[in-house]
């Protein structure tokens, strides 16, 4: 049998203390990776890392992805504990939903900064390390909202669409350096946040899904694993939808 897909690789995942990010971290560890969890909440990051294993397997670090210095420190921690980053997953995100009429400038800026600038920081900082080593995989988390736009999410939809454009541009810049950059667009994924939706909103979204169910965080994680591993060695600049067929 072939060995683990990410054996002895160093993976850095932002926003990984919970939800999709944590599911990705769990699967990466199962596939042989050493994982560094970056999260705005230092305590949550450290707790998540402890759940994954001892310090030889995973470490948790406080990281504000909107600050380049924080991302530098995150990557330096990875190098110190496990070696230079092989896989970077830019997953950190927030929501500040409101109709455009009611959304404040601060709410718009917060979402753009965390998602778009945060992904830019993670991509460029990891790429600077990877290009010197002529290898590496970067996985950016976009969203179906970036494809079709959602009411009450002009900030989030704009940021997630921007991540797609950024992914493609970065992929073109880095391909000849042996670095691949791809994106994932999840649809309705079951989580504490989505399950807190009003039933009417949940039912409306479910009616749009041909597979007639919400996705699980593990189903996003397996796609992240595919894009991080040699299984996708001839793929860069791609956007993979994990949506149950919603808005095909």
What does this structure look like?
With 248 residues, the chain is an alpha/beta fold. The protein has one domain (10-234): Rossmann fold (3-Layer(aba) Sandwich), CATH 3.40.50.720. The chain is 46% helix and 15% strand. It has 9 helices and 7 strands; from the N terminus they run E-H-E-H-E-H-E-H-E-H-H-E-H-H-H-E. It has helices at 19-30, 42-52, 68-81, 105-133, 145-148, 154-174, 192-195, 199-206, 217-228; strands at residues 10-14, 34-39, 58-62, 87-90, 136-141, 179-186, 239-242. The protein has a 7-stranded parallel beta sheet with strand order 3-2-1-4-5-6-7, with helices on both faces. The longest helix has 29 residues, at 105-133. The radius of gyration is 17 Å and the shape is globular.
Topology:
Layout: E1 10-14, H1 19-30, E2 34-39, H2 42-52, E3 58-62, H3 68-81, E4 87-90, H4 105-133, E5 136-141, H5 145-148, H6 154-174, E6 179-186, H7 192-195, H8 199-206, H9 217-228, E7 239-242
Parallel strand pairs: 1-2, 1-4, 2-3, 4-5, 5-6, 6-7
Helix pairs in contact: 1-9, 3-4, 4-6
H/I helix tally? 9
Q: Please tell me the total number of domains.
A: 1
Helix content: 40-55%
Provide the CATH topology: Rossmann fold
Q: Ends: how far apart?
A: 36 Å
Assign the CATH class.
Alpha Beta
**Rough outline:** globular
User: Radius of gyration, Cα only, in angstroms?
Assistant: 17 Å
Average predicted confidence as pLDDT: 96
Name given to the CATH homologous superfamily: NAD(P)-binding Rossmann-like Domain
Strand content: 15-25%
Low-confidence stretches: none
* CATH architecture tag: 3-Layer(aba) Sandwich
The main sheet comes to: 7 strands, parallel
**Total strands:** 7
Derived structural class: alpha/beta
For the largest sheet, list the strands in their spatial order. 3-2-1-4-5-6-7
